[in-house]
Amino acid sequence: MSGRQAAGPSDGPGKAASQPAAPSAPAKPGGSADPSSPGPGSPGKQPSPSPGTPSTPKPPPPPATPAALTLSAPQRAAADKRWCEKVTVEFRNTGGSPARSGTVTFATHIIGALGVDWATITSSQPLPAPIGAGSTRSKTYTVCVESWRVPLGMRVETQDVSAVWE
């Protein structure tokens, strides 16, 4: 007897099944219920694919999704001039491709001594590219407006940050 055991309704050719066969695969007298299983004369031999049946090629990998950046809220710190401040932004790429280039736009509010928002000035700086797929990058920018826009007693606050990328 060979050292191989097969699961199935028959212990070998000509023997009756010890348990009733499943309704989906009735036992054939004198043989195995699976026509692709090797016969009694070929123990250990694996069934070969039918000639003329092409093997199924692996599907190509899905195309990479474009870069998708999410930006953190701006973290502000005082700079050496009252019309400037240091703004730290964290960029997280949740897409499947790197963000290779782009622009970060800052909306800086000019706040008066009594808290009145006098104006909003936008400025742009380059994105810290490349930002790889699934990675995070943080950068601190020095954001300034023209000095004449911020007289004594007034201050700047960069409240909004947005970005565009390729």
Task: Give a brief description.
The chain is 0% helix and 34% strand.
If you had to describe this structure to a student in words, what would you say it looks like?
- This protein has strands at residues 69-71, 75-78, 84-93, 102-111, 117-126, 136-144, 155-165.
- The protein is mainly beta and 166 residues long.
- Strands 1, 2, 3 and 6 form a 4-stranded antiparallel beta sheet that branches.
- Residues 1-18 have low confidence and may be disordered.
Overall shape: rod-shaped
Q: Quote the average pLDDT.
A: 79
Oligomer: single chain
Compressed to H and E, one letter per element, the order equals: EEEEEEE
Span of the ends, CA to CA: 68 Å
Radius of gyration: 36 Å
Q: Segments where pLDDT lies below 50 for 5+ residues?
A: 1-18
- Main β sheet profile: 4 strands, antiparallel
Helix content percent band: under 10%
- Going by helix content, strand content and strand pairing, the class is mainly beta
Tally of strands: 7
Number of helices: 0
Strand content of the residues, in percent? 25-35%
Q: How does the SSE layout of this entry go?
A:
Blueprint: E1 69-71, E2 75-78, E3 84-93, E4 102-111, E5 117-126, E6 136-144, E7 155-165
Antiparallel strand pairs: 1-3, 2-3, 3-6, 4-5, 4-7
